[in-house]
Design brief:
Blueprint lengths: L1 H29 L8 H13 L4 E5 L3 E7 L1 E12 L26 H17 L5 E9 L8 H7 L10 E12 L3 E3 L2 E4 L1 E10 L3 E2 L9 H19 L6 E9 L6 E2 L2 E10 L2 H21 L3 E8 L4 E3 L1 H15 L4 E3 L10 H4 L4 E9 L20 H17 L4
Parallel strand pairs: 3-4, 3-5, 5-16, 6-15
Antiparallel strand pairs: 1-2, 2-4, 6-16, 7-14, 8-12, 8-13, 9-11, 10-12
Helix pairs in contact: 1-3, 1-9, 3-9, 5-6, 7-9
Length: 400
């Protein structure tokens, strides 16, 4: 009975704070900032926390903000995370909250994540006498840029003082209808590494290839051969992806260049295979180049690890979400080969990263993440604030 009363209180407060959450989201959307440059966004967050009387630490790992709400004695410490950075994209929407900073846009929904967590903060603070434990509020910088703000915040002790028992992250998903939540236990999102190849040959006249070492031909052989890393070496039960999206070399059709540059991405769902694949790709690249008379430099910039949703925590969360909004509104997610720096948290403590549906075809909100036309159905923010508060409270203590 008390639990149901608390749930209704959360839903009521979600309605109370909804319009302010919308306005906060629109403000952040108008003034986006790139990774490691979120100074004004962080200041905005700090002003809200100060207004509500919530203690916080600023300038954490750059522009990170970490707040703490303490409930009744006992219970555990739960962390809630929202990212704050935007992307280098020129927005093509025409709304009154369209980005006012040319070339920068919240095309991945981090504006919604930050505003939503502020709304959740308002709810938790209002009800702090109704639950046990502590809830740490992590407003994180630089999710979009390696090495990722999550890794830096962990290194700087964000999961300590007090020690965090588990963590939740919420991310908008434009492929899921507004009003629904997506969740998956176990491995969910891939690791992501950046690949930079330089193929060196000997340039010359295109009519005299016998006097040259053609780095374009070498690069072509490397590209086709590297795909066998996936098809012949990876366990087919564990997906991985190798893509080269950039090839640069030469100046005109009748000149063989000295160098060719390639850039790509490698993604995997298994950390052991990830390391093994790095060695295989590097060895193959160097060997092919040398066998054809050239040389190759192969640089791997390690990105985010595999994101792993703790099975026990995630199954518990699924039941808690069902209590809040009905089992019919929960979608079981497939593996997703994109990457997220929230993964770093899941390698330290139990974590659950779930998806907030934001699609609404009747409103024309259908564009994917990182699109210049991306937007969200803001009605989803009625759910997001209260749901995260409900999850946190249910995990912070056994009595409500």
């Amino acid at each position: 009975m008390l639990k149901n009363i608390l749930k209704e209180q959360i839903k009521s407060l979600s309605e109370t704070i909804f319009q302010e959450v919308v306005e906060m989201r629109r403000h952040i959307h108008r003034y986006p900032e790139l990774s490691f440059e979120e100074k004004a966004t962080a200041q905005f967050v700090q002003e809200k926390l100060a207004l509500w009387g919530i203690p916080f630490e600023k300038d954490f790992s750059g522009h990170g903000v970490v707040g703490l709400i303490t409930g009744q004695p006992g219970g555990r410490t739960i962390a809630l995370r929202a990212d704050m950075d935007a992307l280098p994209i020129t927005e093509l929407n025409t709304t009154d909250y369209t980005s006012r900073t040319m070339g920068i846009m919240h095309a991945c929904g981090h504006d919604a994540h930050t505003a939503s967590l502020l709304g959740t903060t308002f709810i938790l603070n209002k009800l702090r006498h109704e639950w046990k434990g502590s809830i740490k509020l992590i407003f994180q910088p630089a999710e979009e840029k390696v090495p990722g703000g999550a890794s830096l915040m962990i290194k700087d002790g964000v999961l300590k003082n007090p020690t965090v028992n588990c963590i939740f992250g919420q991310h908008v998903q434009p492929f899921i209808d507004s009003g629904k939540i997506g969740i998956r236990a176990g491995k969910y999102m891939a690791s992501a590494d950046e690949l930079y190849l330089t193929i060196r040959g000997k340039g010359g006249h295109g009519a005299q290839p016998q006097s040259c070492i053609d780095p374009i031909i070498i690069a072509a052989n490397i590209l086709t051969t590297l795909q066998s890393v996936i098809s012949r070496n990876a366990d087919p039960r564990s997906p991985s992806v190798l893509t080269f999206g950039k090839i640069q070399g030469g100046t005109t059709g009748n000149i063989i260049p000295d160098k060719v540059f390639l850039e790509g991405t490698f993604r995997a769902m298994d950390e052991d295979w990830r390391v093994k694949a790095h060695d295989i790709m590097r060895n193959i690249t160097i060997a092919i180049a040398e066998s054809m008379g050239g040389k190759a430099d192969f640089e791997i910039r390690k990105g985010y690890p595999v994101l792993h949703n703790d099975p026990q925590l995630t199954h518990s969360c699924k039941a808690i979400i069902s209590e809040y909004m009905g089992e019919e509104n929960i979608i079981d997610l497939d593996l997703w080969m994109a990457a997220e720096d929230f993964a770093y948290y899941t390698h330290e403590i139990p974590g659950c990263f779930y998806r907030l549906g934001t699609r609404n075809e009747s409103k024309g909100i259908v564009h994917g993440l990182h699109s210049a036309h991306f937007d969200i159905d803001e009605d989803a923010l009625k759910i997001s604030t209260g749901l995260m508060a409900w999850l946190a409270i249910n995990q912070s203590g056994e009595e409500y």
